[in-house]
Amino acid sequence: MKLICVENYEEMSSKAAELVEQQILENDHSVLGLATGSTPLGLYENLIRGFKERGISYQNVHTVNLDEYRGLAGTHPNSYRYFMNKKLFGHIDIKLENTHIPNGKAKSVEAECARYEALIHEIGPPDLQILGMGMNGHIGFNEPGTPEKSVTHCVSLDPSTRNSNARFFSDRDEVPTHAITMGIESILKSKQILVLVSGKNKAQAVKRLLAGRISEQFPASFLWKHNHVTLIVDKEAYSLVAANEE
Ligand SMILES: N[C@@H]1[C@@H](O)[C@H](O)[C@@H](COP(=O)(O)O)O[C@@H]1O
């Protein structure tokens, strides 16, 4: 795992954008694996700027997102489809039909998971997968206890994840109880993985990740099984590791 420590969120975001743009400039038909949450917002702002100011084009790029809430239609303001359209896709020249996110409203969740997993293999695997990390070490929506061999599946969200994502909803009870997520195995198939972690509230999780002990109880630790992972952390997220080094 390659570790890049930066000063703050802004620097993390611009460094990440540099790596994503490098990937696209090397191969304009790249498949990108994308994530939601607060963490990649700055990255997406930088990518939009790169498109507008430097003409970095996404015309031939395909994307697959990690996850979607079960029960929310793509038009729902809290769905990840809505998030991606608003925060990135609507501002760059990507073809919307080349962007993929699980359908949270699919009638049969099993069929949707199977369809999505097959799609990842059909167009992917991603050349570069962007990942954030939950405070409990979740990646995508793979909560503690998710087996390494998991593919796209429906999960029951951990109460701590629902609490922390409640900030995007008007009421905690509105946070869906389930989600569809790529599995650990689906994520690890990506050719390269770029993990972004920022802020003091993630310091404990970064410490646990960097301890290097692989455990189902901390899903991000499976990233140690991949040989092309870059982790960008800012000073605050790295603070507990730095305190140990002193
Ligand atoms: N499903 C998403 C993850 O893909 C994200 O990486 C993580 C961290 O979110 P944030 O970046 O807002 O801290 O939790 C969310 O629940």
TrEMBL record:
First-level EC class: hydrolase
Keyword Hydrolase: yes
EC number(s) per entry: 3.5.99.6
The protein's annotated pathway: Amino-sugar metabolism; N-acetylneuraminate degradation; D-fructose 6-phosphate from N-acetylneuraminate: step 5/5
SUPFAM superfamilies linked: NagB/RpiA/CoA transferase-like
Catalytic activity: alpha-D-glucosamine 6-phosphate + H2O = beta-D-fructose 6-phosphate + NH4(+)
Keywords noted in UniProt: Carbohydrate metabolism, Hydrolase
A biological process term (GO) from this entry: carbohydrate metabolic process
UniProt KW Hydrolase keyword: yes
Active site positions: 67, 136, 138, 143
InterPro entries in alphabetical order: Glc/Gal-6P_isomerase, Glucosamine6P_isomerase, NagB/RpiA_transferase-like
Gene Ontology annotations for the cellular component aspect, listed alphabetically: cytoplasm
Domain Glucosamine/galactosamine-6-phosphate isomerase: 11-227
GO molecular function: glucosamine-6-phosphate deaminase activity; identical protein binding
Function recorded in the entry: Catalyzes the reversible isomerization-deamination of glucosamine 6-phosphate (GlcN6P) to form fructose 6-phosphate (Fru6P) and ammonium ion.
Family: Belongs to the glucosamine/galactosamine-6-phosphate isomerase family. NagB subfamily.
The protein's name: Glucosamine-6-phosphate deaminase
Gene this chain is encoded by: nagB
